[in-house]
Amino acid sequence: MAEPNLVLGWFAAFVGAIGFGSFAVPIKGDAATKVDIDPLVMQSYKSLMCFLTSWLVVLLGQQVTFTWWGVVSGLFWVPGGAFNIFAIRNAGLAISQGIVASSIVMVSFIWGNIIFKEPAKSQVMAYLSVWLIMGGLYGMSYYSTSDWVDNTDHHHDHEATSSDHDYDFEEDEQDAFLNDGSTSSASYENEPSPSNPLANSLEISPASPGREKQATPGSGAIVVCGKTFQRRNLGLISALLCGTWGGSCLVPMHYSKGDTGGLGYVISFGTGALLVTIWMWIFRFLYMIAKLKSIREGYAVLPPFHFKVMWLPGATAGTLWSLGNVGSIVAVQQLGQGVGYPASQAALLVAGLWGIFYYREVTRPTTVIKWFMSAFVTIFGILLLGYESSSTGGPGR
């Protein structure tokens, strides 16, 4: 077996952190906001790019291999990825990625330490690291919420008054299904475009203080099963679901045989992701047919792909995620699971930088400092957990 290349391993971990921490930027951008992109549509762009870019491993000398365990991975990753997109759009970039990254590591610890019975150097230190992650996560959640709450109290009071009115949910829901979304996005048509040509193409111009909170649907409410919830709260729940469900996406690789592990698993993963995405569209179509009792209306209410607007942001998001995925795998190969995988989870710090300084999700200097202190506690816990435990987690975004 070849000696590990530490320089390559740390570079791959850096690439993984940049990819995982930055793929959400186009999802949060003006293009996605303008068309109010559907989570499954955006996930479809990610899945397609994951499949297409997976074949690039052949250029690295990797033989083409396939295992059906890649499809099982897709069953974890695709729904988890859709949850993550909803979380980013409605809860904010910084807090959602903090929850995702931390919960992924904890899920990885559970699989490795409890289910697979992989040894830890010290059980006490391993569990201490979990508590550090939970404490840091609480801090990030609290300090990324305080600015939001202060700026939306009046808005929430208004919504609470409005929600007292009775309405026929089934009728409203069907009207919403038959709405193509053009009305909800009309307010964004006159947004000024940035001067930078690339930023103009991606439509990810930075927000002025408070602009992101006003422009995204995250400050409103959403009706689920006849009950009204704040979008931000559902976004936080979605981030947790992404981490807990999607965080198991590389566990099936534990059962793959032969040379289908490591980089040999990338093509299987990409193929499985594409297949599961297609299955989810078929299921959604059949559900709408059953609900509306019409094939034509069932097809009409499926969300559009907005290809002219979203092809570049969608391809960029998918490529960045795929880059992070490959970087994470290479880092684990070269540095080991205990160092390589946790190192790539520095993505939560990268995502936090985007959320705080680019989208201005947190604006008060003291709050920003406290958020960073919480983020560093979380990262320290992640690194300590990775050092103490050799779990088999993976990127679940």
From TrEMBL:
It comes from Skeletonema marinoi. The keyword Transmembrane helix applies. This is TMEM144 family transporter. Residues 180-217 are annotated as: Disordered. Its main location: membrane. Residues 180-203 have a biased composition (Polar residues). Pfam families: TMEM144 (PF07857). GO terms for cellular component: membrane.
